[in-house]
Amino acid sequence: MNEKDGILLESGTGEVEVIEFKVGNEHYAINVVKVKEIIEVDKVIKVPTAPPEVPGITSIRGEVITLIDMKYVLENVKKEPIEKSMTLMCEFNQLKVAFAIDEVLGIHRINWNQIQKPDTLIDDTLVIGNIEIGENILMLLDFEKIVMDISPSSGINVGRIENIEHKDRSKSKLVLADDSPMIRKVLNDVLSEAGYVNLKFFDDGQQAYDYLSQLADIKGEDFLNEVDLLITDIEMPMMDGHTLTRKLKENRVTKNLPIIIFSSLITNDLKHKGDAVGADAQMSKPEVGKLVELVDSLILK
């Protein structure tokens, strides 16, 4: 696996930069764009009734941030002492949270198609992909799931979706790509409740691209009679959502397909990446309650 120099600034290149870090003897990875800062925690204040994964809160650049003990999350053993821990200060799903780890080993630039799915992808797994770096296998972790498992109210929860107006939207054909079984279920529940029942799901961007490309080859100018809209995540093995969007928008037949990027990485700092590849709309995952309205606006416009 070849690593490349320089900072990755362009969108839809098929590449991603990951930070390699250790917890215990295992090697893990996180997408660089989720990490705002790598710092050493100075002081941790315990919070009464906090779950065991949360040793307390800390102050980072004047902000009070919840600290998550990754040793406990991954090994069910508390990190001692938690003070002076190396910490990944992250932002996703419109939330800032810090993760205590053991050691940062470096940054690697790789292709998304070099991230292999786990052999068994089950709902409760924290590993969304495996990356071979030299003699090590890095496990790419689902940090959003880690946070939601600890505090369900911090992320998507179908039970919080209210006042979804049900209509007969069965004629609309939606394609959805997301590697998370939990998110696929959320999307299925929310859209089905609204009346969007003609849904086709894929668990990585390459599968979605192959399906849509084949459909475009077969149907040609009638392509949009067969699919009305694509909803895609960004972080997926094999092909990411930015690359998927760019490739579809560059194709003469598929370029007019409305595309919503639905990701935890939609922040003020990162939204320009989706704009650059031609996404018609972008939405952060906690805003799933607004998804039906957004889909309606793109299909019916």
Which short descriptors sum up this protein?
301 residues; alpha/beta; five-stranded mixed β-sheet; 7 helices; 15 strands; 22% helix; 30% strand; disordered N terminus
Describe this structure in words.
The chain is an alpha/beta fold and 301 residues long. It is 22% helix and 30% strand. It contains seven helices and 15 strands. A five-stranded mixed beta sheet has the order 8-1-2-10-9. Strands 3-6-7-5-4 form a five-stranded mixed beta sheet. A five-stranded parallel beta sheet has the order 12-11-13-14-15, with helices on both faces. Helix 5 (241-249) links the parallel strand 13 (229-232) and strand 14 (259-263). The chain is globular and about 60 Å long. The termini are far apart.
What is this structure's SSE topology?
Layout: E1 15-23, E2 26-31, E3 35-40, E4 56-60, E5 63-69, H1 70-75, E6 86-92, E7 95-101, E8 103-111, E9 127-133, E10 136-141, H2 143-150, E11 174-177, H3 181-194, E12 199-202, H4 205-219, E13 229-232, H5 241-249, E14 259-263, H6 271-276, E15 281-284, H7 291-299
Parallel strand pairs: 2-10, 5-7, 11-12, 11-13, 13-14, 14-15
Antiparallel strand pairs: 1-2, 1-8, 3-6, 4-5, 6-7, 9-10
Name the overall outline: globular
Label the structural class: alpha/beta
- Unreliable spans are 1-9
Spatial order of strands in the largest sheet: 8-1-2-10-9
Order of helices and strands: EEEEEHEEEEEHEHEHEHEHEH
Q: Count every helix, treating DSSP H or I runs of 4 or more residues as helices.
A: 7
Q: State the separation between the terminal residues, measured CA to CA.
A: 45 Å
Largest sheet: 5 strands, mixed
Number of strands: 15
Helix content: 10-25%
Average of the residue pLDDT scores? 88
**Roughly how many Å is the radius of gyration?**
20 Å
Residue fraction in strands? 25-35%
